[in-house]
Amino acid sequence: MLVRRLPFRSDGLDLAVEVCWHGEPRALLVLCHGAPSGEPPDPEDPGYAGFAAQLAGRGYAAAWFAFRGAHGMPGEVSMAGWVADAGAALNALTEVGELRVLPRVLVGSSLGGATAIVAASRRPDAVAVATFAAPSWPEGGAGSGESGAGESGAGAEAFVASISPRPLLLVHGDADDVVPYQHAERLFALAGEPKELVRIPGGGHRLRRDPRAVEALVDWLDRRRFGPFRPDTSAGSPPSVVKSSPGTADNPLRERTGSIGEPSDGGSAPTVRPPWHG
User: Fold this and answer.
1) Are 103 and 228 within 8 A, CB to CB?
2) What order do you get walking across the sheet with 253-256 strand by strand?
């Protein structure tokens, strides 16, 4: 496996992105972590380096980095700052010549998922977005006291419609006690086509450690059949098809490219207090 480390600067802060791949990868996945949980590190958790290596083993280049204010990086946590960091990381990855032509997919967990949605709304070179347990909107900041999306204070729900016509995948556990499942329903209802929502029965918050969620991501990526990167995203969406299957421990309920209506409580997503991690 090849691994490259690329230092970069974002708003004057010194950060770095690492990327790994095997052979000839089909796309470049840029992984966006969630807010720090404040819990002691789990010695059994390989972290995002392990997640990236897992995805590299499935035929994709995968890049990971620590956002400002997290994992010892300078600065303070805010979605506005994290959106800037994601853009700077995308720019830095253009320095890897053999990966430059690959389509770029933002893959975010929790607050990193919301960040991926906002960042993609500003970056046409992000050809698709996938999220695990993303909040639809923030209450306050992510542990910093700042509003979640900077000057507007809006969260992912204000930007998710702009992802279309690029593909969007939302993966969420229905037992998530940090960001309840209604957040995924809200984002799905507001998003344009093509979009997919995958419910993980009994799934908690840290879905990158749930094999069912990872398989849902890889399945979605494999079905995209990405070609060489082209900035023009004006191509039409595929036909809408609604498919569902009974949710079991081995077979998550999947709602594909259709409308599931409003959140199950009939209103906006419930209040969730940070930190949102993943």
Assistant:
1) yes
2) 2-10, 13-21, 61-65, 28-32, 104-109, 126-132, 168-173, 195-200, 253-256
Spatial neighbors of 35 by CB under 8 A, at least 6 apart, are 70, 77, 110, 111, 112, 142, 143, 274, 275, 276, 277
**How many other CB atoms are found less than 10 A from the CB of residue 14?**
12
Under DSSP, the state recorded for 75 is: S
Question: Closest by alpha carbon to 11, among 122, 106, 89?
Answer: 89
**Which pair of tokens denotes residue 212?**
């069912």
Q: What is the pLDDT of residues 95-133, one digit of tens each?
A: 998 899 999 999 999 999 999 999 999 999 999 999 999
- Alpha-carbon distance of 214 to 220, in angstroms, equals 10
The pLDDT assigned to 278 comes to: 58
- Please say if the pLDDT value at position 220 is more than 70: yes
pLDDT digits (tens, 9 = 90+) for 165-184: 999 999 999 999 999 999 99
CA angle 105, 136, 241 (to 5 degrees): 60
Residues in the chain: 278
